[in-house]
Amino acid sequence: MGIYNKLIRDRIPKIIFASGKQAVIRVMDDKEYRKEIRKKLYEELEEYLRAEDDDAALEELADMLELIHVLTEIHGSTPGELEMIRAGKAEKRGGFKEKLFLERVMDE
Question: Which InterPro entries does UniProt cross-reference here (predicted)?
């Protein structure tokens, strides 16, 4: 018997049941859900940082994107609106594609 105490994807209960096992599952309230979504995002980030190849990295990035979409909705927005915010910031301040690393700024 495994004890997990963590947020799971919506179809996991059916997958567990289909494997012939039983699970104890409950629905969280909004406050706990928000906390657990954030915790899960950290978990996925750690898994991304440990990824040993591009395929594994992309799997973890996909998980993070799913969580970011959920968090976007929790904050009262949509993935499309989030993309507009991202694009606006990129337009004003640039992206990260040029690989720039700021070492220091000198006063005149």
Answer: MSMEG_1276-like_NTP-PPase_dom
When divided into structural domains, the chain yields a total of 1
Side chain identity at 4, as an amino acid letter? Answer: Y
Q: Identify whether 10 is part of a domain.
A: no
pLDDT tens for 36-72 read 999 999 999 999 999 999 999 999 999 999 999 999 9
Give me the amino acid identity at 71.
Answer: L
DSSP notation for 4-61 = --S---TTHHHHHHHTT------PPPHHHHHHHHHHHHHHHHHHHHH--SHHHHHHHH
pTM for the model = 0.87
Q: Which domain holds residue 68?
A: 28-92
